[in-house]
Amino acid sequence: MPDGLPRSFGLDQVLFTLDEPETKPLTETWTTITNDINLVLHLLALYFCWEYPIFASLSKEHFLRDFRDARHRYCSPLLVNALLALGCRFSTNPMTRDSSEDSHFAGDHFFKESQRLFDQETDHHSLTTIQALGIMSIREASCGRDSESRYYVGQSIQLAFEMGLHHAHGEGDQDELAVQLATFWGAFSLDHVYSLATGSLPQCSCFPHLPSKPVIIKDIEATLWVPYTDDGAPLRLPCEQQSNERSVYKCFCELKYLSWYDAIPDVLRLGHNFSPAVLFAHMYYHFAILLLFRPLIKLRIIGSQVSPRDVCLEAANAIQDLLMSYSRLYTLKRVPSFMPYFALTSSIMHLTIMAVTAPREELDTTERTDSHVSKASNQGITRLAEMTPCHYITEQAPRILCYLAKKWNVDVDVNTGAILNHEEYERVIRSCTSSLNSFLLPMITEGSIFLWDTGKEVEGRTSSQPKKTAASMEDPLFWPFLMQRRPMLSGGRELEEAGFAML
């Protein structure tokens, strides 16, 4: 790789923020891919600026201290290469790519080196390996390879339990305890976001004992978050503010989202703090609410004024409003890796609301439009397009939305570039996973959200059309995560006994 990236403005503010400034020139890059220390520091700064501390399984302070001092306790070549691979997603510099001109290949060479180092290990039971697996998982999610992403997070949380990190206690070395807690809760929270998104059990669904949450440290809370980009150009608005890193990180360790949001700390309230991580945390809450009520959008709760459809619409609107705020502050060219999934899920929900609010007899004949929802849907599509340079999943998103709009006969303006036929759409909207899992169900080929009236329709298909029945279990409403299935809802009396009725 060519060397010679100049030292970027603002880098020291991102990487060396506490009372331990860089005291000597750094020369050790920790990677065989490049010997350009400025490039390595630049990519690390991009990661710590735009992604950290979201689902982070490492302690920034301990990692950077050992990185600087060439010490292997809390830093390793595997972890550094994984961080560099993820940091490349926030850069358009040609030096982040090995040879291809396509920005979607940014960081591939660092990632392949991470894989090589992981395969070379004879014992994976180390904190830095668990941390690296979490970072590799986030990077693969950014690339739209959710199957691989979930594999890495599964390995990460499994190793954390095998090492007994869930039994971490406050005695002994405080540095070791702090890093153990960060490692466990990072792996735990990342595993749970996949469990939430796919409607599946987490790696460990029974918690006889969990360690204490990471401690809030005032000095770390008070450090400034400073926007950092490829060229050091200032953003449109002054955005320097307290990072509140530990408060943000701690919110991802919570298991009761409603309770957390009701008692949200003042430092995380909108208007008080608007760093990328804080805006992401609010989106994550609304994403969780949307996922909770999404299977029920054609139902009403008997005896309740709460409408699942209205709750989903409010959550989708809230996500779009937060995306608009993020765009105005920072643009959407650099967003955390899971934010495109929030945006796509929100846009799919807007399409779904437009589709299911039409009278039943008009489903196949009348294009449905709702001015507010249609506007929100189009805005969501525009915002996804703005994220494309950073995250490959957003390149698939317009085609997914166009596919659904055509299938559900919804009138929205989706620009997907080249005109594709039905078969080509089904090919490009599939996850770009390289998984060889032969047990994946085929992508749905018929509309399905309108099969929710009763359970009998699905049962009726079982004997005569088993392939279509199997296909109907993988619903576009529950994309973009691979292996996500439509919940099987009972009908008739069973539905009523559960407290629901059809709209």
UniProtKB/TrEMBL annotation:
InterPro entries: Transcr_Regulatory_Elem (IPR051615), XnlR_reg_dom (IPR007219). Keywords: DNA-binding, Metal-binding, Nucleus, Transcription, Transcription regulation, Zinc. GO terms for biological process: DNA-templated transcription. It comes from the Eukaryota. One of its GO terms (molecular function) is DNA binding. PANTHER family: CONIDIAL DEVELOPMENT PROTEIN FLUFFY, TY1 ENHANCER ACTIVATOR. This is Xylanolytic transcriptional activator regulatory domain-containing protein. It comes from Fusarium oxysporum (strain Fo5176) (Fusarium vascular wilt).
